[in-house]
Amino acid sequence: MSSLNNQIIRDIEFRSFEEIANYQEALLKNQIEFVMRNSKYYSKLCLKHSSPNLNEIPFTEKSHLSENNDSFLAVKRGEVAEICMTSGSTGNQVSIYLSKKDLNRLALNEKVTFERMGIGKGDIVQLMLTLDKQFMAGIAYYSGLLETDATILRIGPSSPEIQLLSLIKNNVTCLIAIPSAILKLINYAHEISFDLSSLALKKILCIGEPIYTKDLKFNLLSSKILQSLPVELFSTYASSEMQTAFTDCSSHHGLHINPSLIYVEVVDENGNQVKNREIGEVVVSPLGVEAMPLLRYKTEDICEFILEPCPCGRNTIRLGPVLGRKNQMLKLNGTTIFPTAIIQILNTDKSIEDFVIIATKDSFGLDNLHIHLKQTVSDLQYLAIIEKKLQSMLRVSISISTITEADINKIRGGLNSSKSIKFIDRRN
Fold first, then answer.
1. Span 301-356, pLDDT tens digits
2. Domains of the chain, CATH where assigned
3. pLDDT tens sequence across 118-166
4. Beta bridge partners of 369
5. Is 355 within 8 Å of 373 (Cβ atoms)?
6. CB burial readout 234-249, b (16+ within 10 A) else e
7. Cα separation, 214 vs 405, whole angstroms
8. Closest CA to 423 of 314, 308, 338, 362
9. What is the C-alpha separation between 345 and 209, in angstroms, rounded?
């Protein structure tokens, strides 16, 4: 790992907005030139320009990536060191190719994350996520931790009992986990009357699920965690395609980008950059990626764009929490809603073991939602309570029923994923 690169990443974050913009412009120019020389997809796409400006390059959609997967490869096959897969939450998994340089870059990104969190020598970090199944996040966090002086425990997505035993035995100071998994751990501790305040745990890096509301307050899920655990929560946002993470600082005023590693646009429906504190779709051009570089990749994630100094002193672009997927936005009785809002509420109810949300259209072309709960929630009176809870928090009425675990798996049939699929869109 290059200490010089790490120093540059740390220093540039505290420069002026103008200095950061100029720094990124130079990196972006080099990245575009590399991509045009080596990527079959982009060189064919931009035949008129040998080295186009970014705004002359069309957006890259998820469908482009899935339909032309190998055409994005910019190195020889023999130079590919790792093949990861996207989560496939939409049913279309994509191979993400990484060179040895890309793996080092991935580790550097997460090293910076841990430095922002104050994680280092003396910390014992428990990884509650998988390192197998071609899942990039596990590799990223593990390799990033190796670049720190912290001790690593690769527990993986084990049972709450195993997680708690490890926390106790090893005096774990930091967790990396999906928030809903932490909630299951808390519920288990309460069931056995274990005092969670006795743990050495101080910090949790939350992945995969948002922990903030739009106004950067803790949401229902994170509030539930903080009621039982006296810890500091940090948020992160990433995807396999961008090979980069946006992370919290100690001020908790939005997720910082790494200017050395990614160029970010947040665009409206017409593809124009939104203004400070406006909401739009996140578009990324990862910098320094070698094997599978992407330019102007539309993530479909809707976030707030923040371009103002952070209380921590950094002047990097920040993003608010992911409000939802652009293509998953729903209109129910005139109210705009994202499935993530429903998922967050259901994940906080310990009586609900599993669920799947189905979106359809009625005969008038209007959006409909139905929630299937695993059959352990069989009390009709309790179903009514859940319905009222959703209605009061979301201001919309959603129908709910219970079905067997086998039926839930049948609904999810064929959609293999490293994540449990909670939302299925059948509107098309």
1. 999 999 999 999 999 999 999 988 888 888 887 787 888 889 888 988 878 889 99
2. 1-325 (3.40.50.12780), 329-425 (3.30.300.30)
3. 999 999 999 999 888 888 999 999 999 999 999 999 999 999 999 999 9
4. 359
5. yes
6. bbbbbbbbbbbbbbbb
7. 33
8. 338
9. 12
